[in-house]
């Protein structure tokens, strides 16, 4: 974005959203600060379902392992994120936070955080210009020098690297939790442009197996029901991608009586889909008969205009992947098609012959745009993010180079152990003889790095 445009935008938004909290601070930009009490109650509900993060907060609060950390956060701003933000602060960090998605912010939660004194810049329904302005406001703050980034999609990393390269080079570490953001980090690393260590928590076991699989298994149903009131039994569903997100979505829809088909590029994932009882097809083979089309690939232009031209009328189209590029929504913004808003985040796209499809969240992440995700699963991911930040921030010089790393397995196991008491689960302990036989330490790690769970 050009400097003059950014300057004009900053002035416009500063006037538009000029508010103060009860302590007189105006270092935030939210929809309505008066809704803070509602958001606080939502945060309290989330805390009850996030035992791992709360346990981590209580165990580490006295030690303040993030004392001196100044964290730029760019994630979905929900009640669950608020619990993470307040945990990071309790561990000693100073934070500034923006949203990674223009539709996923819970306005009342953002207000509650602003009222509590956090520098939050986000509201539901931001324009693209708003979106980049909010991230810039988090990064570029007089008298506050960021030294850590917690990203979901890589936008904060991208903007800082592009607009503030000197500031970027002083970052101690980046923690990234999405497929899209991790891909961008590996591209930077390959091109020699990644000048700081980064932690890929998306591919940590506690993120991939729990957030991507179990969370999506529940939230995809919630999003579809809330937006369309659809009856699932007997519907023809096509899932594009059979990674952990696709597996969760497929299992949930199959369990409610849908006939589920899968598209895949990876023969291993395709074979898994076959063994789980799903028919693996090409998009072109099934496009005319399906009732619901869901993308979960993390790729771009998976569903194009030519595909959507062949969908039958009434087909529901949505995206469960992080990136908003999986469905080519831009190709639908043409004079020959009519957009008709049905309800929030629900549009009819109407063809000249009267055919219409139902597009959810304009092709963006449908579960966080149109529903909510289970707090317990987010607790697992949030604890993983917090530990990754602690690890990178406190690592001695030389432990991590200018590259992308996976979360150490010992930390993955620790995150899981924080959540087991919620189920009254009791782990079996190895005897000395058993540990020696397996070649393990009695306290773990219990699996080699290549183990896939």
TrEMBL record:
One of its GO terms (biological process) is S-adenosylmethionine cycle. It catalyses: S-adenosyl-L-homocysteine + H2O = L-homocysteine + adenosine. Residues 212-373 form the S-adenosyl-L-homocysteine hydrolase NAD binding domain. Binds 1 NAD(+) per subunit. Keywords: Hydrolase, NAD, One-carbon metabolism. PROSITE patterns: ADOHCYASE_1, ADOHCYASE_2. Its EC number is 3.13.2.1. InterPro entries: Adenosylhomocyst_ase-like_sf, Adenosylhomocysteinase-like, Ado_hCys_hydrolase_NAD-bd, NAD(P)-bd_dom_sf, S-Ado-L-homoCys_hydrolase_CS. GO terms for molecular function: adenosylhomocysteinase activity. GO terms for cellular component: cytosol. Substrate binds at residues 78, 152, 177, 207, 211. NAD(+) binds at residues 243-248, 264, 367. Pathway: Amino-acid biosynthesis; L-homocysteine biosynthesis; L-homocysteine from S-adenosyl-L-homocysteine: step 1/1. It holds the Pfam family AdoHcyase. Its cofactor is NAD(+). Gene3D superfamilies: Adenosylhomocysteinase-like (3.40.50.1480), NAD(P)-binding Rossmann-like Domain (3.40.50.720). Belongs to the adenosylhomocysteinase family. This is Adenosylhomocysteinase. It comes from Mytilus edulis (Blue mussel). The lineage of its organism: Eukaryota, Metazoa, Spiralia, Lophotrochozoa, Mollusca.
